[in-house]
Amino acid sequence: MAYRKTPAELRRLEAARDHLVARATEVVAEVGWAQASVTAVADAAGIAAGSVYQHFPSKAALAVEVFRRAAGREVEVLGEVLRGPGTPVDRLAAGVGVFARRALENRGLAHALLAAPAEAAVGAERLEFRRRYRALFAEVIAEGMREGLLPPQDGEVTAAALTGAVGEVLVDPLSGPDGSGARTGDLLAELTALALRCSGAPSAAPRT
């Protein structure tokens, strides 16, 4: 009879895996994908490098899990804002502002998620998550059109343009040194105003 792990053993393995992914996320945020070696991650987790392979078959598999968890959290937060209270126009502006603010508060990780050179498997995940961001924006834009708050348009095209624009605008700030609070505020205000112009909203976004 094949040995089956007990529930307690499975919980310990899951906890160890979660700990490993959390430490790997910190390493990626600090040094990027290329420098986040298995040895560096193992050192951060306080385990032997060989122990990493008890949880993941390769560095690429670990990197994909890091990306999925970190990007998944950002999609979750954006979805909460875009589907929350307020008019679709208000939620669109707020969603862009929250997304950008979170990125600027964790620049290393945000740069890794949005733009840093990565293995092909991570690049594929990046494309998939861009589709998820785009779908959320398309949903709120469609709602705005139904309520007469946004002009008729191809919401999917607008959402794709907005997703790309926000990421592109953030690349340089995320890859450079931390800016002042005032500059960050100006950037957030410009991004939320951009979101409204891109969707055809009649008024400018308030400064954040």
Structure description:
The chain is mainly alpha-helical and 208 residues long. 76% of the residues lie in helices and 0% in strands. The protein contains nine helices and no strands. The chain has helices at 7-35, 38-45, 49-52, 59-82, 88-105, 107-114, 120-146, 155-175, 181-199. The protein is elongated. The termini are far apart.
Question: How is the secondary structure organized here?
Answer:
Elements lengths: L6 H29 L2 H8 L3 H4 L6 H24 L5 H18 L1 H8 L5 H27 L8 H21 L5 H19 L9
Helix pairs in contact: 1-2, 1-4, 1-6, 4-5, 4-7, 5-6, 5-7, 5-8, 5-9, 6-8, 7-8, 8-9
Largest sheet: none
Overall body shape: elongated
What is the string of helix and strand elements? HHHHHHHHH
Please work out how many helical segments DSSP would assign.
9
Q: In what range is the share of β-strand residues? A: under 5%
Q: What's the overall average pLDDT, rounded?
A: 92
Strands, total number: 0
By helix and strand content, what is the structural category?
A: mainly alpha
Question: In angstroms, what is the radius of gyration?
Answer: 20 Å
How much helical structure, as a percent, in the residues? Answer: over 70%
Span of the ends, CA to CA: 62 Å
Low-confidence stretches at least 5 residues in length (pLDDT < 50)?
A: none
